[in-house]
Amino acid sequence: MCLAVPGKITAVTDNNAEVDFSGVKRAVSLDLVPDAKKNDYVLVHAGFAIQVLEPLEAQETLKLFKEIYGKAHGGAVSGPLSHIKP
User: Fold this and answer.
1) In angstroms, rounded to a whole number, what is the distance separating the alpha carbons of residues 23 and 65?
2) Which of 56, 62, 68, 85 lies 20 to 30 A from 78 at CA?
């Protein structure tokens, strides 16, 4: 199974961005979405932004991830979203 996670771009340099995933920042390639800019939400898989998202869609997805992973682990989040606090 593949998982792509939404995050918010906080800085852009050339075709790379710093993306904030609920407080955890990672370097992400913008090669597949060259029009993405600071403050956009992007869907990220394997270090590449693969789609620009509407802010509401990104927030709804993050909320669902918190609910799913929080309940599945007895309130303690672990796994691919371990940086998100329930």
Assistant:
1) 15
2) 56
